[in-house]
Amino acid sequence: MTATKKPRRASAAAKAAAGVSEQVELADQVELDFDSPVDIVCGVDEAGRGPLAGPVVAAAVILDPRRRILGLDDSKALSAKKREALYEKIVECSIAYCVASASVEEIDSLNILHATMLAMKRAVEGLGVTPTLARIDGNRCPPLSIRSEAIVGGDALVPAISAASILAKVTRDRMLVELHERFPVYGFNAHAGYGTRQHLAALAEHGPCEHHRRSFAPVREAFALHGMRTAFDAADGTGGAN
């Protein structure tokens, strides 16, 4: 799943936002100069590394400094109502944004870390404007064709990362609400797939569904409880680290 925005006159808008004239050559910039005024910066964050079910979702956002969005913060620090309101403002006011994901199948085959990096890479590459620098929340960066910088706690420090955090969180929460309509016994609308007491009890009673991450230990245990085997039964449990 990938959702993108391609604004009108995207190239000119991106250059104006970065303070770049048509004559400036980005290739001439000093390598790894993260504070260069001519950079087109995107913020990148993810949602859904820890849950036992559903995809991991990532977003990339290039904010427009001429259209400031008040109230941006780490999505986890905001109420659901506030996140929804900010989501609409980000979609409306940003120069470009892209939301992408990695599926449950990709999580199980690659592991959650590599699936997260894949979702982030898809989000950056799906932007309608090509950034020159990606600021990533966390302590590592996905493999990108542009420069990147990992910022621990960036979702509370860098507005563009905060915006990406909100887009990713709202998108994933909406996906789990839709999933709840198909599989109401698990309560996805209440816990978004996280390993709450309610969710673990439902797994024990009903067994996993096709949207559960089989590489995660609690899901494997639920399969075993119901006499079902998976390809991860012999794993050491690290696949479900979150």
UniProtKB/TrEMBL annotation:
Enzyme nomenclature, EC number: 3.1.26.4
Single GO MF descriptor: RNA-DNA hybrid ribonuclease activity
Keyword tags: Cytoplasm, Endonuclease, Hydrolase, Manganese, Metal-binding, Nuclease
Domain RNase H type-2: 39-228
Residues the entry annotates as binding a divalent metal cation: D45, E46, D137
Catalysed reaction equations from the record: Endonucleolytic cleavage to 5'-phosphomonoester
Signal peptide residue numbers: none
Biological processes, Gene Ontology terms: DNA replication, removal of RNA primer; mismatch repair
Regions crossing the membrane: none
Cofactor note: Manganese or magnesium. Binds 1 divalent metal ion per monomer in the absence of substrate. May bind a second metal ion after substrate binding.
Top-tier EC class: hydrolase
Main subcellular location of this protein, as a coarse class: cytoplasm
Domain of life: Bacteria
Database matches in Gene3D superfamilies: Ribonuclease H-like superfamily/Ribonuclease H
UniProt cofactor(s): Mn(2+); Mg(2+)
Localisation per UniProt entry: Cytoplasm
Family: Belongs to the RNase HII family.
Record-linked HAMAP family: RNase_HII_B
Function: Endonuclease that specifically degrades the RNA of RNA-DNA hybrids.
The protein's name in its UniProt record: Ribonuclease HII
